[in-house]
Each structure stands twice: as structure tokens, then as C-alpha cells.
């Protein structure tokens, strides 16, 4: 496979050289040879042909050098633009990811603040609140301690935070009397 590619490259190079040679020959012949009465070119025609071919070859070399240089610059610019586009795309993806993370955190904090407002029970509010599960004025049922009394620890008087309980899940006074 590689030998086929090398052979094609050699053929292409030979074709380009022959095209250039034929172009130079035709151009310089038409420019310099004007007397067709003799078999060989005169001295003036020979010097014109040498100058013409030298100029044409130098021009072609400069042209090819500039063309290759231009192609390399375009390639570097294209690669730089592709790298820049990739950076912008990665930055946009990071920003989108950060925005999405911020939205998730915001929704979690909103949910947390809703929950924390229900969970954060103030000890003073609990001690001032009177919770009674027993039937009113029934001396046979012992006094039920307040939640602050149940949840306080004697060593540092700290209060354990608990989530509020829905009233429907609390036992009714009648059920608590039956269990006693």
C-alpha cells in the first residue's frame, strides 16, 4: 500500500516537473527566438533564453516557497481557530454545568430552608408551648412532659432538633388512655 502511494507521489512529481519544463520552454522560446533561418540559436537568442529560464525558475521557486508558507500559515490559523473554538465550547460546557449545579444547590437550599423552618425548634418556644395528650381534668392520667423536657439533656441543657409530627399521626387522648 505504501509503495503504491510513493509511486503515485513520484509520478505526480514527474508530471509537475515536465509541465513546468514545457511551460518554461514554450514561454522562453516564444519570447527569445525570432529568426528561423538558421539551425541553431544565435548568441543573443541563447543569452535571452538563459536569462529567461533563470528568471522563470527563480520566480517559480519564490512562488512555491510563498505558496507553501501561506499554506502552513493557513493550517496553523485553522488549528488555532479550532483550538479556540474547542476552548470556548469547553468553557460554555463548564458554565452550563456550573449553572446547573447552582440551580440544584438553590433548589436544595430552598427545600432545606422549608425543612429547616419546620425542623428548627426553639427550646424557648417548646418550653412555652403546652402539649397535652391527656383528657382534660382527668386526675388518673399522669401529666405528660413537654417535648423540651423530654428532649433536653441535663449535662449541657441542649435540645435535640426533631422534625414536626403531623397531628394525624399523634395518638389521640382516648387511645393513649386505653394503652395505660
TrEMBL record:
Q: What's the main place this protein lives?
A: mitochondrion
Its subcellular locations are:
Mitochondrion
Instruction: Domain (Tim10-like): give its ranges.
Output: 9-64
Q: What is an example of a Pfam family matching this protein?
A: zf-Tim10_DDP
Q: Which InterPro entries match?
A: Mito_inner_translocase_sub, Tim10-like, Tim10-like_dom_sf
Segments carrying the region annotation (Disordered) are 133-155
Q: For this UniProt record, give its keywords in alphabetical order, as a comma-separated list.
A: Disulfide bond, Metal-binding, Mitochondrion, Protein transport, Translocation, Transport, Zinc
Domain of life assignment: Eukaryota
Kindly give the PANTHER family that the UniProt entry links to this protein: MITOCHONDRIAL IMPORT INNER MEMBRANE TRANSLOCASE SUBUNIT TIM9B
Protein name, UniProt field: Mitochondrial import inner membrane translocase subunit Tim10B
